[in-house]
Amino acid sequence: MTHIEKNRQNADPLNFFWFIPTSGDGSYLGSLERQRPANFDYFKEIAQAADRLGYQGVLLPTGQGCEDSWITAAGLATVTEKLKFLVALRPGVTSPAYAARQTAALDRLSKGRLLLNVVVGGNPVELAGDGVFLAHDKRYEQAGEFLHIWRGLLAGHEVDFHGKHYRVEKGRINFPPVQQPHPPLYFGGSSEAAQDLAAETVELYLTWGEPVEQVAEKIEAVRKRANDRGRKVRFGLRIHLIVRETEDAAWAEAERLISKVSDEDIAKAQKRFLEQHDSVGQRRMAELHGGKRDRLIVGPNLWAGIGLLRPGAGTALVGDASTVAKRLHEYQSLGIDTVIASGYPHLEEAYTVSELLFPELGLSASGQHDLDPVGEFPASVEQRKLAVSTS
């Protein structure tokens, strides 16, 4: 039995999240063909499907091109039951006291289903549009002060603080959150400043889907920093998935997804990423493929085609369900306990991943065994007994 297999035997099932595409969705990258605009009714379809299918939560992205994650999550919380919402907490874009009141309100409205994704920002051009002009490391310094104030307020303390970036006198909030002392903080960042902030402050450190060896190095670096501060940090993986019944079908789907993308589109996108972003993580994503179509397989079943056009998480695990599950278990053996996945288009792929991959991961997909012995998809008595016994 290998080291990975032993760790898999002893590990709890992965926490599995899905994604709400608040900037729009579609069947092809870089094309208007079969595009789905950002629409709350569509977001609701995805959220309710994820809730019903057994996903534990959803990530809502942030940025100028996205619908606001807080308002969208507030709406979706009223039409779902168990689903958790990972929304962006933006130091520098909003004040810590105002953010603390928003946090407490949304946590109460959702009955304790709020999670916070700390986003310090990696695009100075977009940040300038929001009135933020700090250099990279200064933004993380500001974020540290922001979170110090935010955590104190949500813990019920009266806060007096005078730092380099914030001054608060007799700060307080009157309505506490459901989750104490505050909803959990998630965070991703590859720079040393980002890893220091993670080690000092957050509950879960997220990494994009880099090759296993690179992810292992990042996890070890953050774990050591946290240990030096007397803290423990959990770890999560943000990645796309292309799962099909066969390997050939999965790879064909990957190629189809970027079949409308021209070389000119790729060159423009990569130039924009390099010129506008100061994110170390974005640079690492770009270096995996170098903007070249013939360099997209960057690890076993790890494909970087999405990063040709999309900033941020740019890799996908591609393959049949058993193979993709094996690859996810390799990340899990490093300490990953949470996967935040996505796939295009997100409504259909939520079903595909649930139906094909969840059984391989030992996850329960709600409603899959509500079999009817008559109708278009009949099941024999023996099939029904087997389904019940394995549910």
From TrEMBL:
<dbReference type="InterPro" id="IPR011251">
    <property type="entry name" value="Luciferase-like_dom"/>
</dbReference>
<protein>
    <recommendedName>
        <fullName>Alkanesulfonate monooxygenase</fullName>
        <ecNumber>1.14.14.5</ecNumber>
    </recommendedName>
</protein>
<dbReference type="InterPro" id="IPR019911">
    <property type="entry name" value="Alkanesulphonate_mOase_FMN-dep"/>
</dbReference>
<keyword id="KW-0285">Flavoprotein</keyword>
<keyword id="KW-0503">Monooxygenase</keyword>
<dbReference type="Pfam" id="PF00296">
    <property type="entry name" value="Bac_luciferase"/>
</dbReference>
<dbReference type="InterPro" id="IPR036661">
    <property type="entry name" value="Luciferase-like_sf"/>
</dbReference>
<feature type="domain" description="Luciferase-like">
    <location>
        <begin position="15"/>
        <end position="337"/>
    </location>
</feature>
<dbReference type="GO" id="GO:0004497">
    <property type="term" value="F:monooxygenase activity"/>
</dbReference>
<comment type="function">
    <text>Catalyzes the desulfonation of aliphatic sulfonates.</text>
</comment>
<dbReference type="InterPro" id="IPR050172">
    <property type="entry name" value="SsuD_RutA_monooxygenase"/>
</dbReference>
<keyword id="KW-0288">FMN</keyword>
<comment type="similarity">
    <text>Belongs to the SsuD family.</text>
</comment>
<keyword id="KW-0560">Oxidoreductase</keyword>
